[in-house]
Amino acid sequence: MENEHPVQRRGRPRSVQTHQAILDATIDLLEEQGFEAFSIEAVAARAKVGKPAIYRRWPSREALIVDALASLAADLPFVDTGNLREDLLSLIQAFLWLFSSSKLGALIVQLGTTIVGNPELFARYQQHVIAPHLQELAQRLERAVERGEVRPDIDIATCIHLIIGPLVYHVFISGDLFPTATPFPESLVDTILAGITARV
């Protein structure tokens, strides 16, 4: 007698497994070969899928590359503590970890000039990798204004520039050439807060 209750298969659906296999292959090939040698054919071979499976999901290699980078960026730790100082410390520590220890940071450094020099790649990178994190930072600042931690007349976009600019300078230009009296994350956060904190 046939079993009336078919056995349920465990694990992720094949479409999800295929999607992740393609992203993993993309990341591996970018690390090994860089952008110029990167091809959809190579991804298909590495992921053991046909090219149509890739093109059904991504219209171009640029779209695939950015989605692969975005999948790594989704794991960046940026804790919402409900306190702006702690939130900013979390952000800065995550940024420093990104470029010192993470696969995403290494790929961004490797692909930096390529991303900026390729209009489609740069536009997609801004939209799918950078913008979500800047929007999250803007929301944290807006909530800090609502809590009375930050002056209501502060321009949020300018605040974001004040936070991100020194981080980029520290990581890519100065490093530890000019050590701060206190650890860099605390020094940067306290300097920024001195200018934007609500007056009591």
From TrEMBL:
What Gene3D superfamilies does the database record attribute to this sequence? Homeodomain-like (1.10.10.60), Tetracycline Repressor, domain 2 (1.10.357.10)
Q: Does the keyword Kinase apply?
A: no
Domain annotation HTH tetR-type: ranges: 16-76
Q: A single Gene Ontology molecular function, please?
A: DNA-binding transcription factor activity
Which InterPro entries does this chain map to? Answer: Homeodomain-like_sf (IPR009057), HTH-type_TetR-like_transc_reg (IPR050109), HTH_TetR (IPR001647), Tet_transcr_reg_TetR-rel_C_sf (IPR036271), TetR_C (IPR011075)
The name of this protein is TetR family transcriptional regulator
Organism for this UniProt entry: Thermosporothrix hazakensis
Keyword terms: DNA-binding, Transcription, Transcription regulation
Cleavable signal peptide: none
Q: Which Pfam families match?
A: TetR_C_11 (PF16859), TetR_N (PF00440)
The answer to keyword Ligase applying to this record is no
